[in-house]
Amino acid sequence: MPRNSSRRSVTARRSSPPPVQLIPLLGVPEISAGDDLAAILCRIAKRGKSPCRNGDIFVIAQKIVSKSEGSVVDLNSVSPSPRASALAAKLQKDPRFFEVVLQQSRRIVREEHVLIVETHHGFVCANAGVDHSNVPGADMVTLLPADPDRSAAGLAETIRKLTGKNVAVIISDTFGRPWRLGLTNVAIGAAGLAVLLDLRGGFDRTGKPLQATILAVADELAAAAGLVMGKAEGIPAVLIRGYRFVPAKDRASSMIRSAQEDLFR
After folding, report:
1. Please, are residues 24 and 234 in contact by the beta-carbon 8 Å criterion?
2. Each residue of 93-105: pLDDT tens digit?
3. How do 168-177 and 214-215 pair as beta strands?
4. Which of 12, 67, 194, 228 has its CA 20 to 30 A from that of 172?
């Protein structure tokens, strides 16, 4: 059973749940290194007449977390290695960009059409999460936070201190999927909630035992928030209200499948 996952029967969750709200936090300014992101989001929520309540979940785009932590690189300061230059020639990309990607990676998974790598965090994704979009400056890129779970925990703690409310935080990013077309948001960092809901040992509505059902709750919440974030709307944070999550000290990193369980390595 995955560590820190929550076990609960389907029967126990059949009572009619309250409606779940996705509340976009509008008016987030351009974030820079050192900005107090938690205070900014709390202020915007209050100004938008949606002040924090107990049980709220903040879903925050990785991009503004990275900016607040200074995880931004100017490609003009990067000298590409021979390996980066070779990849750039093959994939027709800026060699300085690929040098940053390689620095953020522990291994290359595929290098056909797109560069798929395993990051130092253990994420398998395109370009190690290094990204040009929504960053001022033609040669500026953002990196993933060094420790997204630690970032989520710090944000959650600050929000609780500022508001006196018990909230959870998810840091999301957009990932592709190996068996399906299209991108979706997933949780790369989390604090305050069970990221997995283990239903094994419970029963479905017909009384049949559940033997393999483990729900990726944090990913589902991140994906739901992604519906109102968009890529060009300038909405990098969403408040989810009404979802009855299980409080826990889980880390999003616990959802990464181990090498021993990965059938595609």
Report:
1. no
2. 999 999 999 999 9
3. unpaired
4. 12
Strands (E), the chain: 6-7, 21-24, 57-61, 72-74, 105-112, 114-119, 124-126, 140-142, 168-177, 180-191, 197-198, 214-215, 237-241
What is the residue whose two structure tokens read 């059949």?
A: 14
Measured CA to CA, the distance from residue 94 to residue 71 in angstroms comes to 19
d(CA 117, CA 166): 36
SS3 (DSSP) at 197:
strand
Q: In the structure, what pLDDT confidence band is assigned to residue 12 with cuts at 50, 70 and 90?
A: very low
Would you give the distance in Å from CA 230 to the centre of its chain?
14
pTM of the model: 0.90
Please, are residues 70 and 34 in contact by the beta-carbon 8 Å criterion? yes
The closest of 258, 260, 261, 265 to 122, measured between CA atoms, is 258
Q: How far apart are CA 186 and CA 60, in angstroms?
A: 11
d(CA 252, CA 193): 10
